[in-house]
Amino acid sequence: MSAGAPRLLVISPNWIGDAVMAQPLLQLLRRQHPDSPIDVLAPGWVAPVWRAMQEVDTVIEAPFRHGALQLRERWAFARQLRKRAYGAAYVLPNTLKFALIPWLAGIPKRVGYRGEMRYGLLNVVHRDERKPKRPMVSFYAALASAPVAVAPPPGALPRPALSASAAQQAYALEQAGLDASRPLLVFAPGAEFGSAKRWPAVHFAELANTVLEKLPDMQIALLGSGKDRPVCDEIVALAPAVHNLAGSTSLDQAIALIAASRAVVSNDSGLLHIASALNRAIVALYGPTDPAHAPPFSDVAQSLWLHLECSPCRKRECPLGHHNCMRQMSADMVWQPLQAMLRNPPAS
Hints:
Rossmann fold; transferase; alpha/beta; single chain; Glyco_trans_9; RfaF; LPS_LOS_Heptosyltrfase
């Protein structure tokens, strides 16, 4: 990279899955500005995702409290950013407080979507006013170009891509107490957005017992945050042979474990999109959300969705109280595509 090329700043969304789906934006920026280092300003809980992207030069962890304006702190932080001589900033969150930072830092080109009270703070303003909304990959990738009415579809864009080295994978397996010589299957039973996205614990347990009966050499690890620990405990109570790692691994370690796995079964969550960007075989479970909006992009992937009349409702909790979009998706329905993935794994 040329020492004289201006740096680019990308301001991260707050959700892990959104950060992953923004990765094609970085691939496009790298093509357009091959000599410009790309920095990412991200919350601490999302930073490991950006560190797994080859296009990122520096990850700067945001020192702000979630949801707080902290205007004085943002002004002081922006003065520090000014010293890095950014030529452009790409503001991925739609909030006022994040659009303030590049404006206060004097970054000449400030790109983002029209959001809350951001006029003047951004000077390249995109809009997404059509129904249905743009798929997430298209939503973020569109920021690499001039505003357009219709964004390129996901199939016309680079796929999200993360990486974890062999050494990182080996270390994560050792730390988790897993056997590197045995195949690994990862379950991601959590969903930060709300319980409506969660496939029932009893179904995960039934699937785990089926896998271990048919493929006894398989290891099954449950990944998630500390908030997912109670759901994972329910699974372990019904399938004691699985390894409950929810809340006991860092996100860096979770990324490495997913990279080391043969396949992943996941709700529509951040870990699903990490698995997709690592090109793992995936069975993705959708209920209240539409798989077309944020699908997996792996070479081998199966999205399951029951197409019920009430879905996609996009609600955090089932508004009808029955949760049929997930409950009626049986363990056998998941086992059918999963067994082929486990018995005939794709090349790494």
